[in-house]
Amino acid sequence: MALTTLDAKTALIVVDLQQGIVALPTAHSTGEVVERSAVLAEAFRRHGLPVVLVNVTGGAPGRTQEVRNTGDFPAGFADLVPELNAQPSDHRVTKRTWGAFTNTDLEAYLREQGVTQVVLVGVATSIGVESTARYAHELGLNVTLVVDAMTDRNADAHINSITRIFPRLGETGTTQEVLDLLERSHA
């Protein structure tokens, strides 16, 4: 589904654009993902809309077939990239699971702000972004996924999320489409 509108109270959620993650090999340039996410963050701030910056500092416990880090990451790994130009007004969320809602204050913060729609960007498409989008959808929020402002370590997983999963969770669009909607609906 193409982008149709942005609610009066829409928040941008930037998932895991942090030093350690953007340094990993990905299907698409993390530089472009960071650049587009930074442009969106600035536009949301300019329009007085909430910006949520999410980072991850560990992994959830439990057995998996794939080897993963369930403890703390190395120093500097979780630091947000400077290009996001984090502001004191931005809400920060530190997570230890894939999604930004589990065991964090994100749901309470969005409710307190009166948010009815979230716009998601970040890394990884099939993990942090998708998990956060699923939870937001289950909460009844309108979900918008900016597909040119996200990437994944696995190209097939990225394509699966944006073509098969995301259309069932919300609307998908590009950075420019979101910026155009912001200008039209929040001028």
UniProtKB/TrEMBL annotation:
Residues 10-177 form the Isochorismatase-like domain. Pfam families: Isochorismatase. Keywords: Hydrolase. Its EC number is 3.-.-.-. CDD domains: cysteine_hydrolases. One of its GO terms (molecular function) is hydrolase activity. It comes from the Bacteria. PANTHER family: ISOCHORISMATASE FAMILY PROTEIN YECD, PEROXYUREIDOACRYLATE/UREIDOACRYLATE AMIDOHYDROLASE-RELATED. This is Uncharacterized isochorismatase family protein YwoC. It comes from Paraburkholderia dioscoreae. The lineage of its organism: Bacteria, Pseudomonadati, Pseudomonadota, Betaproteobacteria, Burkholderiales. The gene is ywoC.
